[in-house]
Amino acid sequence: MIKPLGDRVLVEPIAKEETTASGIVLPDTAKEKPQEGKVIAVGKGAYKDGVLVAPEVKVGDRVLFSKYAGTEIKYEGKDYLIMRESDIHAIFE
Amino acid sequence: MIKPLGDRVLVEPIAKEETTASGIVLPDTAKEKPQEGKVIAVGKGAYKDGVLVAPEVKVGDRVLFSKYAGTEIKYEGKDYLIMRESDIHAIFE
Amino acid sequence: MIKPLGDRVLVEPIAKEETTASGIVLPDTAKEKPQEGKVIAVGKGAYKDGVLVAPEVKVGDRVLFSKYAGTEIKYEGKDYLIMRESDIHAIFE
Amino acid sequence: MIKPLGDRVLVEPIAKEETTASGIVLPDTAKEKPQEGKVIAVGKGAYKDGVLVAPEVKVGDRVLFSKYAGTEIKYEGKDYLIMRESDIHAIFE
Amino acid sequence: MIKPLGDRVLVEPIAKEETTASGIVLPDTAKEKPQEGKVIAVGKGAYKDGVLVAPEVKVGDRVLFSKYAGTEIKYEGKDYLIMRESDIHAIFE
Amino acid sequence: MIKPLGDRVLVEPIAKEETTASGIVLPDTAKEKPQEGKVIAVGKGAYKDGVLVAPEVKVGDRVLFSKYAGTEIKYEGKDYLIMRESDIHAIFE
Amino acid sequence: MIKPLGDRVLVEPIAKEETTASGIVLPDTAKEKPQEGKVIAVGKGAYKDGVLVAPEVKVGDRVLFSKYAGTEIKYEGKDYLIMRESDIHAIFE
């Protein structure tokens, strides 16, 4: 298993076809386009000003993140992204 | 539903025609022009210096924000912006 | 009414003719030239290092601010500026 | 009267002739050359890390400041500078 | 023995052949590609906002780190990297 | 007398001949070369994270400082430098 | 004697021949190559977020530091470097 460090989150990106299926369509503009994914693993959080701030996202959450966020890894044949939680904009509930 | 993370806010931008109707007209200068919108969802706030600072804006608020702020998403056929609360200048009351 | 967020202040700029009348004349140098205005609305302040710092300026104050500070808005036919309180140099008493 | 905000100080610069009289002569090098002035008004100080730090300078102090510091204003026919206290290097006692 | 200072970690990088063997395959994209290694020594941690934050990684952990992170050293014939813990993305468990 | 503000220090630089006499010879490399001087006056210190940190140097100390540090002033016919204490590397004891 | 200020450390660099003798060989890559040295004197530490953080290194420690770190001085005929402790990667024990 992969355990992200600090405020990092392991995310499995969802392919564009699925994205359309879930109702999210990325608009055709010059702005940064976020991408959808599923949270696979979450770090314990990071210290901010002397306080350990626990992550808001949890395993299984469907999240919206900056398209160019994170670092790609391939693990047991699947593609993942490791990113900081601050790269995640929102959760779909 | 979309739940913004941290100090992020989900805003539905109001088209320019509506903007005129509500009394706001953007002046013709070289300065940055703010835009009007409606708050749809609000994060729980962010930690600043060890204190969780709750957002000042709430769902339903009509807000003025930086024109180039935030990230565009299309959700269930509608266009939204996810931005940090610090990109919001003021509330119309 | 417009309610500025955080440490923002809504200022009605005073035209140059008035500026002369109140005794302020901007010198002809290459330095940044401040501008005079009247405070119309004030945010509740901002958190600095865990402390909510209330604004020093209050509604009605005549203030001196950086000429290029803030964001222009037109509201009910009048021009205003929304700026951070840190863009205000001084109050005329 | 002009009341500087935060850690700002209102200074009346002293002309070069006076500077010579008080014993300060600026050397002819490529380094930044400070300038002398008199403190006319002082803000209440600024919050640093949760503590309101009162200014060290007081009205009447003769101070040495960075030549290019501050913002020029003309008030009731006289030239002043509004600068942050951190632009002031030293007091002449 | 080498004792890293502060929040630094001594890592023995694992060659690419091993990387494949453990199931990690780096994808062929333009994104930054992380690298795998084994933790050999760990500093005592660093002070963040007045709190000594102990490292999350421990000796023997198999870690994923930024490819260009750290400083190379050769010690008793072996190649190591000294990097800050923040350059480590995740632990394999 | 000149009283430096905050964490500033007034230093009388020692000419290169004296420098040689005291045993310090600056090497001929491309690195920044420090300079020697004598502390003439010291500010009360600066607030760092809510704590007033008193200066380590005191009047009379012989110090080593960055060659390009500080601001030159001429006072009663003598050349001095006003610099921040952080520009001082070491004291000769 | 030279007493470094704050979090500075006085280091006597060890020539490359000695480096080889102690088992450290710097690899031939484009990465930054650290250098070995001996700690001669240590400052009292620096305030970080209101806490005086004492240095981890002590006099006599053999340390590994960034090759381009610090300021060169020649004292009583010997070459030294004054650097911040954060430029030191590790101690050899």
UniProtKB/TrEMBL annotation, chains A, B, C, D, E, F, G:
Q: Which UniProt keywords apply?
A: Chaperone, Cytoplasm
Key word Membrane present in the record?
no
Cite the Gene3D superfamilies for this sequence: GroES chaperonin
| GO molecular function term, any single one | unfolded protein binding
SMART domains hit by this protein: Cpn10
Where is this protein localized, as stated in its record? Cytoplasm
Gene Ontology cellular component list: cytoplasm
Function recorded in the entry: Together with the chaperonin GroEL, plays an essential role in assisting protein folding. The GroEL-GroES system forms a nano-cage that allows encapsulation of the non-native substrate proteins and provides a physical environment optimized to promote and accelerate protein folding. GroES binds to the apical surface of the GroEL ring, thereby capping the opening of the GroEL channel.
Xref: NCBIfam families? PRK00364.2-2, PRK00364.2-4, PRK00364.2-5
Family to which the UniProt record says this protein belongs: Belongs to the GroES chaperonin family.
The name of this protein is: Co-chaperonin GroES
